[in-house]
TrEMBL record:
<protein>
    <recommendedName>
        <fullName>F-box domain-containing protein</fullName>
    </recommendedName>
</protein>
<feature type="domain" description="F-box">
    <location>
        <begin position="4"/>
        <end position="51"/>
    </location>
</feature>
<dbReference type="InterPro" id="IPR012885">
    <property type="entry name" value="F-box_Sdz-33"/>
</dbReference>
<dbReference type="InterPro" id="IPR053222">
    <property type="entry name" value="Zygotic_Embryogenesis-Asso"/>
</dbReference>
<dbReference type="Pfam" id="PF07735">
    <property type="entry name" value="FBA_2"/>
</dbReference>
<dbReference type="Pfam" id="PF00646">
    <property type="entry name" value="F-box"/>
</dbReference>
<dbReference type="InterPro" id="IPR001810">
    <property type="entry name" value="F-box_dom"/>
</dbReference>
Amino acid sequence: MEPTFPLLRLPDNAIIKVFQNLPLGTLFFISLVSSKTKKFVTSLGLRADRVDIRIDRLSEVVVHTQVPYFNLPLLPFTLLEFKDWMNHIRTIFCYTSPPNVRFFQGCERFNVQSLKDAIENVNNLLLSRELTNAFSRNVLKHFNIPNNLCLRKNPFEEVLEIQKIFLQNFESIAFHDFFSLDDMLLVNSQKTIFTHPTTQKQFNQFIKHWTHGSNPRLQYLYLLINKTDVVSGEVYLKGIRCMEMSEDAKREIRQKHRLSVNADMIQIRRKDGTPAVIATKDENILYVRFIVLY
């Protein structure tokens, strides 16, 4: 039998020094031993930058600290246990912000209302394409006020239902399914990402509406235009008053928004004088970023 070390019999300051040199995962599980060890670990002032929860067949919680991060597999677990885990994580890592939650195939075995009760509010909410439409709608019903939303597909049959989602004032929304011009004009998020390719004509119509005052909260829009639609010329700029930009101004925007050095751009203005740039990168598809300059 290997000799044991009576760690908890040491003076408090000695215990803390030992704890300060232990790996993050070890500290977490030591904090579960007793209220005394929990108190010592909490006193270290560990801070989590964010907490990510992945819910599927092999559910897990990933706690991101500066260096490194802590991965906690939760298989199997009950929702009651899960709520206890979350409360413990919040205490140990002094974490009060909403977590990021991603739903993947296999999560359907859980009751959504019970998940909501255990997790409470969320920061980023992602629903994968593999989920059934009914389950996705149920998640959106209960987790209805995330800061950021990512939908891998449209779970609604009625157009008005997905448009209700677009109308919400998220910080950002990423949508990976077909979208119409009406959908674009209803978007009320600061940052919007559309990954289903659109047409030059639709983007052109959107820009014209924006110059007349639509989408007042929008600060950043990312979308793709089919390459086959580009051969007819730059239709997406037709009828839009554009202003040339200096290379210095382009370089500054590329750096600030992490754009490719090959991205070209032009500037436009809304009728109220608000400036914006349209940055494009032409590869197999036309990558478009519309950035409002406040």
